[in-house]
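Internal QA ticket QA-208
Title: Verify multi-chain structure generation after dependency bump
Assignee: T.L.

Test input:
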Amino acid sequence: MAYMALYRKFRPLKFSQVVGQEHVEKTLKNQIKNQRIGHAYLFTGGRGCGKTSTAKILSRAVNCLSPVDGEPCNECEICKSALAGTLVDITEMDAASNNGVDNIRDIREEVEFIPTSAKYRVYIIDEVHMLSTGAFNALLKTLEEPPAHVIFILATTEPQKLPATIISRCQRFDFKRITVSDIMKNIKYICDSSNIQIEEEAQRLIANLSDGAMRDAISILDRCVSDGESIITEQKIRELAGVPQFNYLVNMTKAIVTGNSEDALKIVRELLDEGKDLNVFLWELIKFQRDISIYYVDKSLLDYSEKQLEEIQSLTKLSNQTLYLSLISKLSDVQSSIKWSTEQEILFEASIIKLCLENNKSGIGESGKGQTPINVIASVKEEMANVNSDLKDRVLTILKENEKMRIQADLITTTIEYKDDGIVHIIFNDVLNPVSKSNFQKEETKIAIKQAVQKAMGKEVSVKYDNFK
Ligand SMILES: [Zn+2]
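Actual output:
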């Protein structure tokens, strides 16, 4: 393969190459230099901010035969086999797919043995919040008395989901969201070292689109480069990333605030026909609502052309600032609900129609305005029916796997249903006995149910008790 993706070519191999996390870099290098290495680390922070890269660097640094100023040399035989992924003493595990108690039990048995060729056995557990309660308990036992030759590096985007007992056993490092200017600087560096020409505005747009994730920024860059352009322009990135034109944002906003679902759907169709990414569109739409809200306060803060500002002004006359502010949170809800769905288009259309109906002051059916296309609603209903056909069984099975027998038994008399409010309802058909009732009120029960439901649904979703008595 002649072309090596920039993502692979520029992945950080030393602490100093990880962008925007100097506070982590400094502490870890000092620990290596002073031989004061911990046995359990917890790396927290948003996606793409360098947690896994840092974990891999740390796993080499602690084992490197000739570390340089706290960094791995990346040259010795240990570093080389670690980089090639053949060093058996370093284990990477994704807790999203290996979350059971058996996976951790395997590790617990393994840690008793001394490392094969390196100094330490290192276990990197990614997305550690996905572990089942049983697995957490098993892990905790190892963390309480870790053998001297073992190091755990746990990484998570959601530390609030970890048991406090786990957190308290770890040295915690909070990774920061990478700033736009740091991402721009790194993009510039990558382009300069690869003889790629890039406009400054293009750097800014990539940085904004990547939302604090360096990995995403480089992959956008990769797509532009493989397209063979001599210079990367802002316009090129707009096309490639499917960033919608300004008029789409104006027209969609207008359709929503005037409650015109017909127009709104027409725009969705056009976006899809042009191959635009709905997630990117939503993200732009949310930012646009924020900008409209800012216009009410101080339009000089906005970065638009005169003509575009006139368009924004006309939108401010259609409604008020409170409505635009409320749209930011409503559209954010839509964003999180469609993100992991396999039925993005249907859910997106249904959500937009719902927003239109909320704002439809003229009433349904009047002169073609605000009509709800029946086929869209019908297909959403069909999707709900598909999800619900075996949802309850799946939730119960997962609870059993997680060794939550008591909760599983108590849930058998309930109905578990995903409804069109986007929430999974636990419907209590019978009056509960006092023991079951107090069990359902416990925070740990609620967490266990929510985890099982989210796993069964394959996405983030809220859970609600109905008819609880
Ligand atoms: Zn080395």
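Spot checks passed. DSSP finds 22 helices and ten strands in the chain.
Status: verified.
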